[in-house]
Design goal:
200 residues, single chain, 30% helix, 5-stranded mixed sheet, alpha/beta, globular, Glutaredoxin
Amino acid sequence: MSNRSLLFIALVLASSFAQAVTPGSQAPDFKGTDSNGASHTLSQYRGKYVVLEWANKGCPYDQKHYRSGNMESLQKEWTGKGVVWLSVISSAPGEQGSVSAAEENQYLKTMKASPTAALLDSEGVIAHLYQAKTTPHIFVIDPTGKLIYQGAIDDKPTTDLADIKTAHNYLNDALNSAMSGKPVATASTRPYGCSVKYKD
């Protein structure tokens, strides 16, 4: 067995026994490669707000936010304010939502999406660290590296595009409050969507 395989198994086992990642705790550092081949770590973005968005283009809940333009609008708004937005794709090879780097870049172009980067996490290493459950599943990290929100993107757990207009957006609440120096009123909610398609 290769050293890389052993490392992956160790990380998965460690995350299985780790405490849940909860708001108020330090967000786990990670290293991931994006769809353009560049490496990213959480620690390199210390001093900035970071959004982690678990994504799966085949999931109807994820499609709701992309086909409506909602996710793209959020990405554009917050990256324009200096927030680092990392879409994370943890679908295992052969599972729903699994994409090659080229396929992901084409999808981002087609949808006019603008995350800072799309991380390809097909081994599920980053997803296990954060115990990501659904697509979408949102995590917001403050400039000190502390997790300030985790959960659903909003309060409408449906696949209906029309619900976007009346939804209460928890992601916006967290960033608006934190960037205004206020506590995040709702720091944790139950995420909704398709299950993350982890590798067996």
